[in-house]
Write a structure and sequence with these properties.
This protein is α+β, with helices and mostly antiparallel strands. Helix content is about 35%, strand content about 25%. A six-stranded mixed sheet has the order 1-10-9-4-5-6. A two-stranded antiparallel ribbon has the order 2-3. Strands 7-8 form a two-stranded antiparallel ribbon. One of its GO terms (molecular function) is metal ion binding.
């Protein structure tokens, strides 16, 4: 057998094994590995420091878009994220939860800090200008819109959470209707199959 043929077979075998390994993962969430969106964000944290995805390299990052005056979806998402960290046990320290505001008009830095820390002190709230918010939401294919409610307004928005692996690669779009157990199961699978 020629050297070239042996190399071809070795590469084919390696690719086949990698594909088999990926097929062995059985996610509850939508596998969007390799998507050409959800590439990055550049927004300020509650201390005014600009943060981006590479700041969290080496950790699994769960991103959710919402607003602090949300009556049900956002508090449910963050309470679930806190429960997921607990369910992961000692591996929960590898999970960084990031809450991105879609309502920068009302979500001040202090309010974002108080809101996220109410669920878990390690959670980070990010915010930007209206233009920055739109740019990041578009990058993540997140829908949001201001809806008038009498003399004030609320926000309508999409409800997926996005999970990045420890290399900073987007992996999963996680459905809002799923439980903390389902989220934790998916994250644990990624942690166990980290390459």
């Amino acid at each position: 057998m020629s050297q070239q043929r042996r190399q071809f077979l070795a590469v084919s075998l390696a690719l086949g094994l990698a594909a088999c390994d990926r097929k062995s993962l059985n996610f509850n969430s939508i596998d969007i590995t390799g998507a050409d969106y959800c590439r990055d964000f550049k927004l300020n944290d509650s201390d005014g420091k600009q943060r981006q995805l590479s700041d969290f390299r080496g950790r699994y990052v769960l991103v959710f878009f919402g607003f602090t005056q949300c009556p049900d979806i956002c508090p449910t998402a963050l309470a679930r994220a806190a429960a997921v960290k607990q369910k992961l046990g000692k591996d929960g320290d590898q999970l960084q939860v990031i809450f991105i505001s879609i309502d920068p008009e009302r979500d001040t830095a202090d309010l974002m800090r108080a809101y996220t820390h109410n669920f878990d002190p390690s959670f980070i709230g990010l915010r930007g200008s209206a233009e920055q918010t739109k740019r990041v939401a578009d990058e993540f294919k997140v829908f949001y819109a201001k809806v008038a409610t009498g003399s004030s307004y609320t926000m309508d928005h999409s409800t997926l959470s996005y999970l990045f692996d420890s290399t900073g690669k987007i992996r999963l779009a996680m459905r809002h209707e799923h439980s903390a157990d389902q989220f934790a199961s998916d994250i644990r699978q990624l942690m166990q199959h980290a390459t």
